[in-house]
Specification:
This protein has helices at 3-41, 45-48, 63-70, 74-105, 111-123, 130-138, 144-147, 154-178, 183-190, 195-206, 208-224, 227-232, 241-246, 256-276, 278-286. It is mainly alpha-helical. One of its GO terms (cellular component) is plasma membrane.
């Protein structure tokens, strides 16, 4: 082996060691908080207050998980989160898919302006809209005489989350359909399909990765949202998991063990989606990067 080859091999080994070292550091930084919450959820309340800090439970217990469902309405919080996030996701996927296909395939008057206005609505800082949404949900215009106040209802959260997630869904699906060859639409029409038949039978199956990415992200955003859930709800009838978890923080005491158990339950969907469905998210978000 000559000197140049040895130098090249040493350089490759050094570069790989640096890369693996940075990757290991990244994994530790990202996963350590989740690991610490997990082990804390299995600790006895007294152990969470002990010093020095322990990085594994000395006497693992499931009592924290059992107690938050027995002593707190965590079952109701979980059900509320599922209803709100699931309904929001269904609405956003349905309207986002139809709107995205329309913006991608039809060049109607005001196409770009309308699309820009939809996306621009999502660029408004959510915190700036808290008071307007509170006023609207407390006294809904037009439909207020029929529905009454929507404050402290799951409908208020669904409408609010749809407002913030729908532009994102339209943007993802529009970009995804831009990457689907128009020749598929033409072939479907040649085979005798109407516009909608071609959409449902040919285009929609091809768009499954984009739909999956939209559904996953809309569900996670709705599931994790805290600020509007705090402002627009006031009782367990409509409060979601993030609010239920925050109630373990009192003015003079923090119940770390139960807080960690509730936090793990609230974080579980995001962790599972990230681990098992990341390929759909990546595919759905990058499909429109290369156009026909």
């Amino acid at each position: 082996m000559n000197l140049n080859t040895e130098d090249e091999w040493s350089s490759v080994v050094r570069d790989r060691m640096v890369a693996y070292g940075l990757l290991a550091l990244y994994v530790v930084v990202v996963w350590f908080p989740i690991y610490y919450i997990l082990i804390t959820s299995f600790k006895a309340p007294s152990e969470t207050l002990s010093f020095p800090i322990t990085f594994y439970p000395h006497d693992p217990t499931l009592s924290n998980y059992v107690e938050i469902f027995q002593n707190r309405p965590f079952g109701t919080y979980t059900l509320n989160s599922l209803i709100v996030a699931g309904t929001t996701t269904l609405i956003c996927v349905t309207l986002g898919t139809l709107s995205g296909y329309t913006f991608s395939r039809y060049d109607f008057l005001g196409n770009k302006a309308l699309l820009l206005s939809i996306i621009a609505a999502r660029m408004i800082p959510p915190i700036a809209l808290i008071v307007p949404f509170f006023e609207i949900m407390s006294n809904p215009p037009v439909i207020g005489a029929l529905t009454g106040s929507l404050y402290n209802t799951k409908a208020a959260l669904i409408l609010t989350y749809t407002f913030f997630n729908l532009p994102f869904a339209v943007w993802i699906m529009k970009n995804y359909f831009d990457g689907v060859p128009r020749s598929l639409d033409e072939q479907a029409q040649v085979d005798g399909c109407s516009t909608w038949e071609g959409f449902f039978k040919v285009i929609l199956p091809v768009a499954k990765p984009g739909i999956a990415a939209t559904a996953i992200l809309a569900f996670i955003f709705s599931w994790n949202e805290f600020v509007f859930a705090l402002v627009l709800t006031s009782s367990e009838v409509s409060q979601t998991l993030p609010i239920g978890v925050s109630l373990f923080v009192a003015d003079d005491f923090i119940d770390w063990a139960h807080l960690a158990a509730g936090g793990m339950i609230a974080a579980l969907p995001g962790i599972l989606f990230g681990l098992f469905f990341q390929r759909y998210i990546v595919s759905g978000l990058t499909q429109g990067a290369v156009k026909e």
